Amino acid sequence: MELLNKKRGFLFGNEAIVRGALESGIGFASAYPGTPASEIGDTFAKISKTEKIYFEYSTNEKVALEAAAGAAFSNVKALVSFKHYGLNVALDSLLPIVYLECPLVVAVADDPSCFSSVQTEQDSRWFSKLGHIPTLEPSDSQETKDMTKFAFQLAYKYKIPVIVRLTTRVCYSKSLVNFNKTIKGKTKGKFKKSWFKLGSYQTVERHKKLLKKINKIKQLAENSTLNFIEKGKGNIGIITTGPAYNYVKETEQELKIKLPLLKIGFSYPFPEKKVKTFLKNLKLKSVIVVEELDPVIENEVKKLADKNIKIYGKNLFPETEELKPEYVLASISTILKKSLPDELVENIKKFKSSEIPARLPLFCAGCPHRSTFYAIKKVLGKKKIFGGDIGCYMLGAFPPYEMYDFVVSMGASIGVSHGIAKSSNEKPVIFIGDSTFFHAGIPALLNLVYNKSNALVVILDNRLTAMTGQQPHPGTGWTGTGELTKIIAIENIAKACKVNFVKISNVWNFNQLCKDVKEAYNSKGVSVLIAKGECRLFAVKQLAKAGRDWPRFEIIKQNPKLNELAGFQCPAIKKEKGKWIIDKNLCWGCTICKQLFPDYIKVKKK
Fold first, then answer.
1. 21 in helix, strand or coil?
2. Nearest residue to 460 (alpha-carbon basis) of 370, 348, 379, 527
3. Dihedral angle over CA of 298, 300, 303, 304, nearest 10
4. Helices assigned H by DSSP within 243-324
């Protein structure tokens, strides 16, 4: 793989994190999968054995952070990776660890435009200031690799966690990266034991020490080559960071201009002197601050700029969605009173006139969750209160199911539903996935039982962390590096939590699944129904690898009853010229349609 080439390779930003870690002598990596950061862990999983480093998928991000911190405390170079929500989960431990002089690298991926995130469009840079955590912001894969290496150097020099903050566009853009030699890192160290002083006085003293350390790092940021000035013409300057820097450079090419520019790659501690020098020495009259999401850098610049300098920022660029190159081009051209290139104007006209059909996301063909949602809707209807959680099964929120009343964070489906059950006469139905249950569902389930709640918890067990790339979890029986391990049975956990009713239901047996849903809902108190069926995408991949085929189905005669298939919404089943058909290229042989309409659907002959 290109990641392990000797001289250079085309890498995604996520892969560049791994390469930078290998060039730093990493010995320990941990993660919890979450797009857009998933491939950092996936890449470590692929190369960890050949490169002789330790890697694990932890049960959640907090545990992943703590495991990596333990390795760092033992003088083993460690990196933990997760998406922005994962940082929220880990924050409870991250903030105290900053006080404890832990040389750890934390890779965090934000997701502007919520391409793979539905709860919030979070800008994680605020946590840098909150926790006094040095933060680096790369704009492409080369910078990502280089900044990862610098993060390890900084972490070890000052004994402090360092954040490398990516965004979706950096994670999934590929560019040429020049390599240096990898360093064989040690996977075993020694924890330096000493008397750990505990108490409020000691914590305050550690805080004071941290602030002094940040002041020293601030001087480093001021002189760092990660923050650099590009000379240009005119009295209008640009300050930018991350992938926005690339869009600014594209704009300069399009408009054939060269403006004074300050690129900030080392964003916390904020390089105030560098910014003041940029503003004063170049005698700027106005500055355009180009950054994604929140006005983090813009606010800092406004504090430093003279009143006679006009600052453009979020009055031009959106605070929501991913920053697009055309936004930057349009805004800068307006300020400079330059016309857009004719070709671009023509393309914009064509784009506006073209109609892009709306398309709601669908479960994969043969997805086990389709059967579960269809059965629950058939048995219980749509008027119950449905607590939703994070995973592939979020698609149950869309038509024709529409069986999500809220989604908050991993595991919150159970916690919020408990409050509803206690505050009303309703019995909520809770949807939570297998990986999510291990991640954050167990404490919430304990709370349901302990506080005598009344709810049905449906654990959609597709045997994988499917949504983020089919990674393993404690219920799969193998680790992130493919080693066999103990299977933690969900039903045993539920029984240990003393729930009133526990049952495993095979989602591929539709009639029995309906009966099990009814029985589970009618049971008083806390009920757990484990809707079990392997991710069909994974199953078909495994069959294909083994050279085995799977059954396809066909509709043998038409009947008005088949209109019910519209509510089943399988991608393989469609209506063409007034007739229902099953696309043999999309059918993955789950059998549910055959069970629903045995008189009209049969196995297709080869």
1. helix
2. 370
3. -100
4. 244-255, 272-281, 296-304
CB 555 within 8 A of CB 601: yes
**Nearest by Cα to 108 from 129, 136, 130:** 136
Produce one character per residue of 122-150: b if its CB has 16 or more CB atoms within 10 Å, e if not.
bbbbebbeebbbbbbbbbbbbbbbbbbbb
How would you class 294 by CB atoms within 10 Å of its CB: exposed for 0-12, middle for 13-18, buried for 19 or more? middle
Confidence of residue 358 (pLDDT cuts 50, 70, 90): confident
pLDDT at 606 over 70: no
Cβ-in-10-Å burial (0-12, 13-18, 19+) of 316 comes to middle
Domain boundaries, the chain: 2-188+197-223, 227-352, 368-536, 549-603
Cα-Cα-Cα-Cα torsion 324, 393, 470, 170, nearest 10 degrees, comes to 10
pLDDT tens string 582-598: 999 999 999 999 999 99
Res. 343 pLDDT band, cuts 50 70 90: confident
In tens, the pLDDT along 44-78 reads: 999 999 999 999 999 999 999 999 999 999 999 99
The one-letter amino acid at 410: M
Identify the bridge partners of residue 420 per DSSP, sorted by sequence position.
none
The tokens for 59 are 């049960």
Question: C-alpha 255: how far from its chain's center?
Answer: 35
Identify the CA nearest to 121 among candidates 299, 318, 268, 395.
Answer: 318
Q: Do domains 2-188+197-223 and 227-352 have the same CATH topology?
A: yes
Distances (CA, A) of 3 to 6, 213, 216, 486, 583: 9, 35, 34, 32, 39
Second-level CATH architecture of 227-352: 3-Layer(aba) Sandwich (3.40)
Pick the CATH number of 549-603 from 2.130.10, 3.20.20, 3.30.70, 3.40.50: 3.30.70
Q: Considering only residues 199 and 15, tell me which one the structure prediction assigns the higher pLDDT.
A: 15
**At the topology level of CATH, where does 368-536 sit?**
Rossmann fold (3.40.50)
What is residue 296's three-state secondary structure? helix
What is the CB neighbour count within 10 angstroms for residue 267? Answer: 25
Residue of 206, 101, 202, 93 lying closest to 158 (CA atoms) = 101
Count CB-CB contacts under 10 A for residue 12.
23
Instruction: Find out whether 264 and 297 touch, Cβ atoms under 8 Å.
Output: yes
Nearest alpha-carbon partner for 265 in 237, 240, 246? 240
Distance of CA 286 to the CA centre of its chain: 36
65-68-70-72 Cα dihedral, nearest 10 degrees: -130
pTM listed for this prediction: 0.91
Please provide the CATH number assigned to the domain covering 2-188+197-223: 3.40.50.970
